[in-house]
Amino acid sequence: MTKMQHKNLVRLLGVILHQGLYIVMEHVSKGNLVNFLRTRGRALVNTPQLLQFSLHVAEGMEYLESKKLVHRDLAARNILISEDLVAKVSDFGLAKAERKGLDSSRLPVKWTAPEALKHGKFSSKSDVWSFGVLLWEVFSYGRAPYPKMSLKEVTEAVEKGYRMEPPAGCPGPVHTLMSSCWEAEPARRPPFRKLAEKLARELRSAGATGPVDGQDADGSTLPCGQDP
Q1: For the chain, what is the total number of helices (H) and then of strands (E)?
Q2: 134-163 b/e with 16+ CB inside 10 Å = b?
Q3: Total-model pTM
Q4: Does the annotation mark 73 as catalytic?
Q5: For every one of its 228 residues, what pLDDT tens digit does the chain have, with 9 covering 90 and above?
Q6: What is the CA radius of gyration of the chain?
Q7: Catalytic residue (choose from 73, 84, 213, 216)
Q8: How far apart are CA 226 and CA 67, in angstroms?
């Protein structure tokens, strides 16, 4: 994994094998994406910035896809935000070359594709399903997916064709992307390359990213809830 070099992947710097196994990763200062969004909210993070984060993740996953690697645990909690607001895919604890098989009891049910839950079939397409759930997390500003549903209820509902409604304020094209990620047939889900292209197009339509992380354009701090 030390050979995996991409601006949207957290860099693995090395491994220490002294009195146990320790993995040394690059420091990413602003924590994970879920907490970043929950603590700032709509007042401080605008739609273009949400699109930018989503695009960063798609580009990082496009790189993994090109290397035939499957993440298997893609979720907003496993995306870290750098000091300069770059989203980076992290936690490759489950990542491995495409193949079948993983103990289903270890899987994050609400993010895992039906074919992976039911048959242990993991691929870049199952990561795409998870990316759709991540998009829902991002545009809901860090809410837990499938709110008020148990894991059993989620599994049964998804199997019957249930899909989450878009979060409040979510742009229509983004919800369309989510829905394409949740196609029941894996082959019908878009590759990350296409997802990145569509997110880049939507970002251009939305305009440049504005102030984020509690600062106005001149660097002054904005009171919570106040627009620049």
Answers
A1: 7, 6
A2: bbbbbbbbbbebbeebeeeebbeebeeeeb
A3: 0.85
A4: yes
A5: 556 788 999 877 666 777 777 666 677 889 999 999 999 999 999 999 999 999 999 999 999 999 999 999 999 999 999 999 999 999 865 455 555 545 555 689 999 999 999 999 999 999 999 999 999 999 999 999 999 999 999 999 999 999 999 999 999 999 999 999 999 999 999 999 999 999 999 999 987 544 455 444 333 333 333 333
A6: 18
A7: 73
A8: 44
